[in-house]
Amino acid sequence: MMATVRDVPELPETPDPPAIDDERELLLAWLDHLRTSILAKLENLSEEDARWIPEGALIPLLGIVNHLTHVEWRWLDGIMLGAEHHRSEAEFHPGPELTVATAAARYRARAARTEETARTLPLAQRCTDGSGRNFRWVLLHLIEETARHAGHADATRELLDGTVGR
Question: How far is it, in rounded angstroms, from Cα 143 to Cα 30?
Fold first, then answer.
């Protein structure tokens, strides 16, 4: 039986960030808004459901959170601050040692470190990778990357159990 609009479970709505005149704070507010949306997709899921992939496509919800945690580390600590960094496809498919609770806690902790670092760097500061990109570009990229994966998370959760996000 096909679900009607009323039968479809919905996640709580996350209101848009308020209008903020300070550019840095506005960018951080949007990034936080998107993170909240991503984490909401994990709510009330079993470990098995958090690893579910629809017919081998998309990314499991646990993988999305794990990947985004690494993305923020890579861009802030690595590309902005010069720490050695790497990217691995394994981020999208973490092993059984990573639980939903641990992944969510790590994402929240990384978010706190990102915001702390973000408040110390000038928006015009250049990346250490010689690309000519600056910290403003990095923040916008983090928003873009998180928004893309929020869409993946919406699709995966809806295909998993019918729950829709905003």
Answer: 7
